[in-house]
Automatic annotation (TrEMBL):
Reaction(s) the record says it catalyses: Hydrolysis of (1->3)-beta-D-glucosidic linkages in (1->3)-beta-D-glucans
Family according to the record: Belongs to the glycosyl hydrolase 17 family.
UniProt-annotated stretches for the region Disordered: 70-90
Annotated membrane topology: Single-pass type II membrane protein
Organism (species): Vanrija humicola
GO MF terms held by the record: glucan endo-1,3-beta-D-glucosidase activity
InterPro entries the record matches: Beta-glucan_modifiers, GH
Ranges of Gly residues composition bias in the record: 75-90
Protein name listed in UniProt: glucan endo-1,3-beta-D-glucosidase
Length: 401
């Protein structure tokens, strides 16, 4: 079955664009990680374009053999970072409930969104101590609020085995773009390129500009704007004469991907959320794979440059608390014993199958983000951990064995 068929069957709906998405605009903002004046809708099914006659693509990727040996960063204990960030973060107690089983994880530290900057080295370091027990790769969302340096300093101080995909958030403000470009290149100069696996210029820029279309005049205008910035950043990056080649791409909703976009980037990071597909958890992992495959991987295969494809956000939210269960169509958020089954069904299945499939994915996400309460619904509650870094109960991290 195709992703659209799964969705249609499960929702009893006659495929796409019947207005259901609009009914939920109260809770559907997420992911751009930056406040916006207008509410965003998650359109990727609503406007899904049927991609006909596509040659099957193959997910290029290394089969991830993630075993969860009682993790342990890169081994280095107390590397005793230098730097102004506040010294060593290397001595920390490992939590044996955690397993290094996720290919990657989305990370947006608290205080990373202007004008509410305020991310602190000590807090970011605590986050990294936890996240490094779950994964070896982090995806960031912007280079505002000194985030790139804070994260790289934390990795250095803790001595954990992690690489990072930093990002520049793109909107209509060129000053902010330039500022982030400077801050990001400063951080790379200071901490070195070894820690960096790729850089995303833009997160959901196309979705914010054009909904989920993949062609047309507005699409082309937005793509030109975005690709100009990708090119500008790449020129700067190349000019740094780094010893390591760092690919440059963008992150966006899976629904906005096109061959034209593919040809402007070295990689695409696709956000695909079964929750917003309104699917029961039992269908979620399969649907996510199908959606990514049909709308992204197979499209990338048509581009001459064959960009690398990441699934950049997928996960399953919990509810605010045990008395307020949240649902969206057939999707139920997990929190109580009963509801957490939904979480486990989606997340465990996805993580273990994707590891076996060789999908390069970033789980969304490590920690709850209270600042997203303004967007309502499940927005603040996607974390494995609550905002105070408590592993949510009764969630258990899969071992995939
Ligand atoms: C660090 O993590 C990578 C995967 O991201 C893995 O291939 C490598 O073996 C790890 N290194 C150590 C020293 O554990
Ligand atoms: C950014 O963070 C780094 C690492 O902690 C620190 O060395 C630097 O002083 C910070 N810069 C600013 C402007 O806060
Ligand atoms: C970020 O860039 C701005 C201007 O481009 C600069 O004033 C500021 O010091 C930079 N901050 C860091 C942390 O590098
Ligand atoms: C950036 O420049 C390098 C070197 O020319 C090139 O290999 C890479 O494809 C470029 N990336 C983008 C997104 O243009
Ligand atoms: C893994 O791949 C198979 C097809 O080979 C697919 O049916 C399954 O849904 C995939 N699962 C994930 C989570 O990628
Ligand atoms: C549970 O969460 C809902 C939604 O955020 C809120 O209205 C309600 O007051 C909360 N209840 C408790 C007991 O915290």
């Amino acid at each position: 079955m195709t992703a659209d068929e799964i969705w249609a069957q499960e929702s009893g709906s006659n495929l796409i664009n019947n207005g259901r998405k609009e009914q939920y605009d109260g809770g559907a903002y997420y992911g751009s990680e930056q406040p916006k004046s207008s509410k965003k809708k998650w359109w990727w099914i609503g406007g899904a374009i049927l991609l006909a006659a596509i040659i099957a693509g193959v997910v290029a990727g290394v089969v991830v053999s993630q075993n969860n040996k009682k993790n342990n960063g890169s081994g280095s204990s107390g590397s005793g970072g230098s730097g102004s960030g506040g010294g060593s973060g290397g001595d920390f107690t490992k939590d044996d409930r955690l397993h290094k089983v996720f290919w990657g994880m989305a990370y947006d530290p608290e205080g990373a969104v202007p004008p509410m900057c305020g991310a602190k080295q000590s807090e970011v370091t605590k986050d990294i101590q936890i996240l490094s027990q779950l994964t070896t790769r982090l995806r960031l969302y912007s280079a505002n609020c000194n985030v790139t340096a804070l994260v790289m300093q934390a990795i250095k101080d803790t001595g954990v085995n992690m690489t990072v995909y930093p990002a520049i958030y793109v909107n209509q403000d060129d000053t902010i773009f330039t500022y982030q470009m400077n801050n990001l290149t400063d951080a790379i100069s200071k901490y070195g390129a070894d820690m960096v696996d790729g850089i995303a210029v833009g997160n959901e820029y196309m979705l914010n500009q054009v909904g989920s279309s993949t062609s047309g005049a507005a699409y082309n205008t937005a793509l030109k704007y975005l690709s100009d910035r990708i090119e500008r950043f790449n020129t700067t990056l190349q000019g740094m004469g780094l010893s390591k080649h760092i690919p440059v791409g963008t992150g966006d909703a899976g629904s906005v991907f096109s061959v034209a976009l593919a040809e402007k980037i070295d990689f695409f990071m696709s956000n695909v959320h079964p929750w917003f597909g309104e699917l029961p958890a039992a269908q979620a992992a399969k649907w996510t794979w199908s959606y990514f495959d049909e709308h992204n991987v197979q499209v990338a295969a048509q581009a001459t440059n064959k960009p690398n494809m990441y699934l950049a956000e997928t996960g399953w939210p919990t509810s605010a608390n045990e008395t307020k269960f949240m649902t969206l169509g057939g999707a139920q958020a997990g929190m109580s014993d009963l509801q957490s089954e939904q979480w486990h069904t989606c997340s465990n299945t996805y993580v273990c199958e994707a590891n076996a499939n060789g999908t390069e994915y970033f789980y969304f996400e490590g920690f709850d983000q209270p600042w997203k309460e303004q967007y309502g619904g499940v927005e603040p509650y996607w974390g494995l951990f609550d905002k105070d870094r408590n592993l949510k109960q009764p969630l258990t991290i899969p071992t995939c064995q």
